User: Fold this.
Amino acid sequence: MREIQLRDAKANLSAVVDEAIDGKPAVITRHGKKQAVVLSYEEWRRLSQVPSFGRLLMAAPARAGDLPARNRSKLRKTDF
Assistant:
């Protein structure tokens, strides 16, 4: 991913956006520090719709015999 200074990005904003649409995002820097990223809307949508870890686990193709059986004899005894 290329880095571009803020003043250059301002002067060439249309070209920076066109490149992002073509799959070449850019990191915008100000005073040498990374401040922002310009990427296509489609790439932003793809990245922002990452499922939660729980949803990934629920979607896993696990079957009953895939996980080892629990050994309940090692469970701590409680007084309830």
Remarks:
- The helical segments are 6-11, 13-21, 41-48, 53-59.
- The chain has a mean pLDDT of 88.
- The first strand starts at residue 2 and ends at 5.
